Amino acid sequence: MTPDDLNDFLLGSAGVAGALLGLLFVAISVSQDRLAKSGRAALVVAVGGLTFITASLLSLRREWGPQGCHAREAAFLIALVVTFVVQIIEGARLIADPGHAGAAQTIGVLVIVCFPVGVARTWELIGRPSIGLGHELAALVHGAGQKAEATDAAD
Question: Whole domain around residue 84: which residue ranges?
Answer without folding.
Answer: 31-154
